[in-house]
Amino acid sequence: MAADDVPDLYPSEPRPVRLMNTIWADKGRVRDALTTVGQLDRWARQCGIQPTGPLGEEDLLRARELRDALRRLAATVVNDERPAAVDAGLAVDGALATLNGFTAPCAPELRREGEQEFRRDWRFGVDGFERELVALAVEAGELLSERPEVRLGACYGPGCVLYYYRSHARRGWCSAGCGNRARVARHYRRHASS
Hints:
The protein is of the alpha+beta class. The protein has a single domain, classed as Orthogonal Bundle (Jann2411-like fold), CATH 1.10.3300. The protein contains seven helices and six strands. It has helices at 15-20, 37-46, 57-77, 92-103, 128-145, 148-151, 176-192, and strands at residues 23-26, 29-32, 106-112, 118-124, 152-154, 163-165. The protein has a two-stranded antiparallel sheet. A two-stranded antiparallel sheet has the order 3-4. Strands 5-6 form a two-stranded antiparallel ribbon. It starts with 14 loop residues before the first helix and ends with a helix.
């Protein structure tokens, strides 16, 4: 993989899940796809975010901060105890404070849409890439607050550290590949102990 390559894992997932999944596993190692500004720029464009100017180190730090907070909160709501999935040093209250800090500069606003229709939108108190991160944090807050135990899942495929949006109630893995690996591992455990 080239220096600024970012795997586009499951592009149909909501943006907050896609940000969480910039931590991923490959060949038994947990990897971080947001280690350079170039990777952040590439990830943003994969998610349909067109930065209004060049990204910098502060943008990278802020994106990683939000990502780590979202992973901690997702792990909490889905009761995920995989040691490689989250930063053990980040407490739930700290992650919640981080998410709330990101959403603080925005407020709900009712906007007119046509003659007799209105739509709720958000007014942002920040610009540039920070505004994109705030919008992503708002999306994450909605995802985490509306029956998250039903809407989010942690993939328990062997070695996987990804999260996914439950598109249907029976979905149990991030991908069919992880599901197959989990079934094979379960089959092997059953027959190895016989």
